[in-house]
Write a structure and sequence with these properties.
Length: 380
């Protein structure tokens, strides 16, 4: 098993180097990655100020852009601020999203609070989903907005469709087509606002979700699925720990000793290996190697999540039983609790997905780092 994991690390790192994958650690807690013309970044604070010739993918606690991205831009984080120019499509999600940019394609934005500023121009369609939405920009093809409260005070060349509990139309609103509104009451149109196609109102309780499904059935299915997921992951993790106790313990500890290298290596493995597999598939003769590489890649992803849970388990045992010997039973119990803690953290609003993503990256990186730097056999 250990040799197999080590082989994944060696193949992934060697092929990543041959194909130009590079990882850089910034002065703070962020990791950036340049792959050809594309740019990837993850960390607590990311500020993209240099132009990107290809696509850009950014995720972090605070993400901001103020430069030109020639391809697509994907940005996710607790706070997201999008500026500059985007050559193709925009995908943004965050607790709060400030959007003041020129987008030559479509824009899809989701968040708790969304503010589309007056400097925004979207050449394609604009879709917004959030709790509080303010639109003051320009959307050429159409506007779709769904949220608790929506304020329209910008320009839409085509139709605008809104689903919200409250719709406020500002005096600067300009809609070249129809305004289609699904909500509890027809909105008022202030003096100065222009809606060329008129208002199409559909009285609807937009807060109702999936009432057709019985709550008992839905809750039972969700609970059963969660239980089976936990059972499968725990059994696999327990076997991993019992078969390679020394290796698993050292891999989990590597997250605490080398957090940035673990995150960076995890990001490189996560992004580069699928690309290498696609290249091998294209060559035809490399198909067997590509299939083997992807199989081992999926195994490393799964074991990376277990490694992250083991790290949480180690920290918990160190706090609850300082200086006392740890038996196999305590290790397995701590592993179960570690999986529960990670699952609970993933359920947190706004930041849960980011926490899960960072934990996965750290687990993958630490596992690969330990395998690649482990010439000796794992000890029991």
């Amino acid at each position: 098993m250990k040799r197999r994991v080590s082989g994944v690390a060696l193949v992934a790192l060697a092929l990543a180097a041959l194909t130009g994958c590079s990882v850089h650690y910034d002065g703070d807690d962020s990791v950036t990655h340049q792959f050809g013309s594309d740019f990837f970044g993850a960390g607590g604070m990311l500020n993209l100020t240099e132009p990107v010739e290809g696509d850009a993918i950014l995720t972090g606690g605070h993400v901001s852009t103020a430069s030109e991205v020639s391809g697509d831009l994907v940005a996710a984080g607790g706070e997201v601020s999008v500026g500059g120019a985007i050559g193709d499509d925009l995908y943004a999600a965050g607790g709060s999203v400030q959007f003041d940019a020129i987008v030559n394609g479509n824009a899809r934005v989701a968040g708790g609070d969304i503010n589309v500023g007056p400097a925004t121009i979207v050449a394609g369609g604009l879709s917004l989903t959030g709790g509080q939405i303010v639109f003051e920009g320009v959307a050429h093809k159409y506007l779709q907005a769904s949220g608790g409260s929506v304020r329209l005070d910008g320009e839409v060349i085509g139709d605008a469709e809104v689903r919200a509990k409250e719709l406020v139309i500002g005096p600067s609103a300009r809609i070249g087509g129809r305004l289609i509104y699904h909500g509890p009451a027809e909105p008022a149109v202030p003096e100065g606002a222009v809606i060329s196609g008129g208002i199409e109102f559909h009285e609807q309780d937009v807060g109702r979700v999936f009432h057709e499904v019985q709550p008992e059935v839905r809750d039972a299915a969700t609970g059963l699925g969660t239980f089976l997921w936990f059972l499968g992951v725990f059994v696999a993790g327990a076997l991993f720990v019992l078969l390679l106790p020394g290796f698993t313990s050292e891999a989990a500890a590597a997250i605490g000793r080398k957090p940035l290298p673990s995150l960076g290596l995890g990001l490189a493995i996560l992004l580069c290996v699928p690309f290498v597999a696609v290249v091998l598939l294209i060559t035809i003769i490399g198909i067997p190697v590509a299939l083997l590489l992807m199989s081992l890649y999926l195994l490393v992803l799964f074991l990376g999540w277990i490694t992250a849970a083991l790290f949480v388990a180690q920290r918990g045992l160190a706090a609850l039983r300082p200086g006392r010997p740890v038996t196999r039973g305590w290790q397995l119990l701590a592993l179960l609790l570690g999986l529960v803690v990670l699952w609970l953290l993933k359920q947190l609003p706004l930041v849960g997905g980011l926490i899960g993503f960072v934990a996965l990256l750290a687990g993958i990186g630490a596992l690969t780092w330990r395998a690649f730097n482990s010439p000796r056999a794992a000890t029991a």
